[in-house]
Amino acid sequence: MEDGKRRQNTPRRDASKRTLFWILRTLAGLGALLLIWLAAVLWVRLDEAAVPGTSAFPDLPTELGVGEPELQCASGGCWRELEVQAGTAARARQLATDLGLETEQCGAWNPLIWRRTCTGAYVAGTAVRIYAQYGYAGID
Predict the structure, then answer these.
(1) What is the pLDDT of residues 108-137, one digit of tens each?
(2) What whole-number percentage of the chain has pLDDT above 70?
(3) Mean pLDDT of the chain
(4) Which of 20, 62, 75, 85 is the most buried (most CB within 10 A)?
(5) What is the DSSP letter of 56?
């Protein structure tokens, strides 16, 4: 320091400070997004009453007697269930097969919330009961 003067910031030093500030700001923003995502995943995991909408059910022939979707819950969570009257037990079994729901089918899992929509059916007398529920990635 000559003559008691302070050393002035050089353009190079200013650019370094701006770059460091930009990097820190970006990291803080990414950290905030990560916290929001983790909170959403945690909320989805804790919300056992969450069920897919009626759009998760397959399209059904109009001549069948279709009831209103019902919400069912048990210790493992909740699901939406739809009863379809097929007329006979044999026709009910055939309907479940035709719909491809004799075994549970699950769609691709959603990486944003770590769950997927699963549908299946079972025959109950002369009816087919179709259900839709959420499956959770890594918990099968």
Answers:
(1) 877 777 788 899 999 999 999 999 998 865
(2) 82
(3) 83
(4) 85
(5) G
Token pair for 81: 């269930």
Tokens 């916290």 belong to: 35
Query: Are 67 and 96 within 8 A, CB to CB?
Result: no
What Å distances lie between residue 98 and 50, 59, 113, 121, 125, CA to CA?
A: 28, 12, 31, 11, 17
Distances (CA, A) of 47 to 4, 54, 118, 119, 135: 67, 18, 17, 19, 13
Q: Answer yes or no: are the C-beta atoms of 36 and 44 closer than 8 Å.
A: no
Are 102 and 121 within 8 A, CB to CB? yes
pLDDT tens per residue, range 28-48: 999 999 998 888 777 766 776
Q: Give the Cα separation of 21 and 64 in Å (integer).
A: 65
| Angle at 35 (CA atoms; ends 33, 37), nearest 5 degrees | 70
**What b-and-e string marks burial along 84-103, b requiring 16 or more CB atoms within 10 Å of the CB?**
bebeeeebbeebbeebebbe
Residue 59: name the closest of 18, 4, 107, 99 by CA.
Answer: 99
